[in-house]
Design brief:
The chain contains 17 helices and 14 strands. The protein is of the alpha/beta class and about 450 residues long. The chain binds pyridoxal-5'-phosphate. The site of pyridoxal-5'-phosphate has 14 residues, from helix 4.
């Protein structure tokens, strides 16, 4: 595999840096496993020997008739199932409008395309994400400005957002990364003070909540996605939530060739394009998969939160492996990913890479998360800055890529790239308590064998 062919998933699942272990204090193993055993990496028996994680996504055969009905109806383009999906999703979130799209990338792009953000404007973005989050900002000719994250929550830090505000700031892009909620009350306070447009990238965070309010409902728009690994898996799919009817009308028109929709009116013929648009409509078969998946969404969400809370509690005994914290006020995460922060010093010098290898050998699918490749250094931006439109709208100093990288450098992000641990396995997070105990057993076994693993 050539370097540039390595997929994101491959990166995310590949072991990275490692840790070292300290003796575990205050932990009373209640598990059947003898965790002083030889680590699987050194030839011992794996904690998960002969056990498989549940599969994700899941499909129940009882839904086949619904799927067949759509296929046999021969109405495959947007119709009643898409309408129903939008209605259900809007109701679940207590929002006036939901517009579905082909995927999350296009939901985000549409949300920015129909905003008033334009060339010369700045949008403050969370850097702990990847390109899909910011394409729409660049399509509008605006400038992404990155504010550092809080390394304990992985989320954009509102105090850092404040530091990046200038007279040109027009928007904020919080990304509820790994399924944990960003601090929306603090972010919306800043947005209100400075009259900023907020698009929430909630693509990883279905049903995560702050004070009982779901993410995606705080900002002007909240975008979700339904790719196969997600907690509402469709394969491909996306949605935008908003309470602004005029904005929704423009979004609807945009997703449908710019045709008339509500307040976007004045057509001469059925194919009069009224606004510059796209065609990013969800299909009926996507919607029907989504509707079927919605049946267990809340039940599984509850289970993920129970398992997440269980792991959080058990991991307290291991100072070198700290669960990602939910900020004050957060009432639920989506646990799309179970995140942890590795502290090599508190692990007696065992490198993160070695810890991950040892966990993987025990059958626990832990990886490093996003590779150390910050968005603000990626060649895509250099190319955008070299475009005629950017050259017309920004000074050469603003477009100097080296200076841009320095201005946007986020030290806590870099620290997180080097210390994050992600369990990114949809089946694991809906497993049994015995499955969760296996995760802890593996951590415990590694702790008990740090000296051997370091050799
Ligand atoms: C945070 C975030 N934003 C946006 C997207 C894009 O969503 P999609 O793959 O549905 O286009 C993803 C997908 O991985 C994501 O994780």
């Amino acid at each position: 595999m050539k370097k540039n062919e390595i997929s994101r998933r491959h990166f995310l699942s590949t072991a990275a840096v490692a840790t070292a272990g300290v003796a575990v204090s205050g932990f009373t193993p209640t598990f059947a496993q003898n965790t002083t055993d030889k680590p699987a990496l050194l030839g011992g028996t794996s904690v998960r020997a002969n056990k498989k994680w549940l599969k994700w996504p899941q499909w129940d055969k009882k839904f086949n008739p619904k799927m067949n009905e759509v296929m046999e109806s021969l109405t495959w383009s947007r119709a009643k199932n898409v309408n129903q999906f939008e209605k259900s999703w809007a109701e679940l979130h207590g929002m006036k409008h939901c517009l579905t799209t082909v995927n999350g990338t296009n939901a985000l792009s549409a949300a920015w395309m129909q905003s008033d953000i334009g060339p010369g404007d700045e949008v403050i973005c969370s850097p702990y994400t990847f390109s899909a989050s910011i394409f729409g900002i660049l399509y509008k000719g605006a400038m992404p400005v990155f504010a550092d994250i809080d390394p304990t929550t992985f989320q954009i830090d509102p105090a850092q957002i404040r530091k990046k505000i200038t007279p040109r700031t027009k928007g904020i892009l919080p990304v509820h990364i790994c399924g944990y909620p960003s601090d929306m009350p603090a972010i919306m306070k800043i947005a209100r003070e400075h009259k900023l447009f907020v698009v929430e990238d909630a693509c990883q965070a279905h049903l995560a909540e702050i004070g009982g309010q779901k993410v995606g409902t705080f900002g002007d728009a909240g975008c979700l996605r339904c790719q196969a690994s997600k907690t509402l898996p469709v394969g491909e799919g996306g949605a935008i939530l908003t309470n602004n009817t005029e904005y929704y009308d423009r979004l609807y028109s945009y997703h449908n060739f710019g045709y008339a929709s509500g307040s976007v009116s004045g057509q001469i013929s059925a194919i009069t394009a009224l606004i510059l648009a796209n065609k990013i409509r969800m299909a009926e078969y996507q919607a029907v998969i989504g509707l079927c998946q919605m049946e267990r969404l809340q039940e599984l969400h509850k289970l993920r939160n129970e398992n997440g809370a269980y792991l959080n509690e058990k991991l307290k005994a291991y100072p070198g492996v700290s669960p990602v914290q939910l900020h004050k006020g957060a009432t639920a995460a989506s646990y799309y990913i179970y995140g942890m922060v590795y502290n090599q010093d508190k692990m007696d010098g065992l490198p993160r890479k070695r810890f991950i290898e040892a966990m993987n050998a025990e059958g626990i699918p832990v990886g490093t998360g996003y590779p150390n490749d910050p968005l603000y250094t990626q060649p895509m931006l250099r190319e955008v800055f070299n475009s005629e439109i950017y050259k017309k709208c920004y000074t050469s100093k603003e477009l100097d890529f080296e200076q841009y990288k320095q201005r946007n450098h986020c030290p806590s992000l870099i620290k997180t790239y080097d210390s994050a641990l992600w369990i990114w396995n949809g089946g694991l997070m809906i497993g049994s308590k015995a499955d969760m105990d296996d995760v802890i057993n593996a951590v415990d076994k590694i702790h008990n064998n740090i000296a051997k693993l370091k050799q």
